[in-house]
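Justification of resources, computational component.

The compute hours requested in this renewal are based largely on the per-chain cost of generating structure records like the one below. Each record pairs the submitted sequence with a full structure-token output. That output is archived, and it is also reused by downstream analysis tasks.
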Amino acid sequence: RFTRFSFKIHLGGKALDKALDSSRHMANALDSSRHKAPPIDSSRHKAPPIPSGSTHGGLSPRFSPRRNSGFSPSSLSRSHSVSSLSTLTFKTPSFFETVPAISKDLGSLTSSDISSDEESTFTPKRGDLIVSGWDDKIVPTKSDLSEIFETSGPLSNVDVYVKEKFAVISYVKSNHAKKAVKKYHNVAKIAGHVLNVRLSPPVVLTRSDVLVHGWSAKDPIQRKDLLGIFAPFGLVHKITFGVCNDYAIVTYKNQFDAQKA
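The structure output for this chain reads:
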């Protein structure tokens, strides 16, 4: 008798076939040795009875070998689903060579576009406006931005990130932010430059999310375009667009695929 155990194989190609073959031989050897073993006197090895209501002296049902789910060597030898037992990763050099050109058309993405605790420069809250689009030589002050956006409602805070070239404007009421993004998007100007005004994501970004923006309002990106760019890095769970289609959140099934993207 042997205890069942659970495991995963992260192999591919010939290495996976070799592992499956070796597991089949091991299963056959265990099965044959088990049938040839002499009978065991169960009375000699019987454990003493456990008093009713006792919490000590025995295995928890959760960790009992009979209840523990998982692959045994014999069940592995009968398995026909290779994809469920292996994790295969493919990298196509030709695709990675085209990524810079595609990203350049979308606009350069900074570290703040990737939702990582180590790389984020700010934490957007629900109801915040993210404003960008001014010239490098002219950086608006808090008073400049307040003068424009306070006409839609009272502001609670204004932060200008000079290095990242964007500002975060917080309203007292979130519904004022929703009105403002429709009112000022591609309309408000500073020193002749049209501002890109977008609403912060209505959900909290996780490590599986990638925030993407930077395309022209006259030629917005489509869902199929984003899938063509980001699907090769991993399985995309969903794509969420902003209120004015000015940004998108690409959510992966696996957070490590998001980091690669």
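Residues 53-121 have pLDDT under 50 and may be disordered. The first helix runs from residue 14 to 36.
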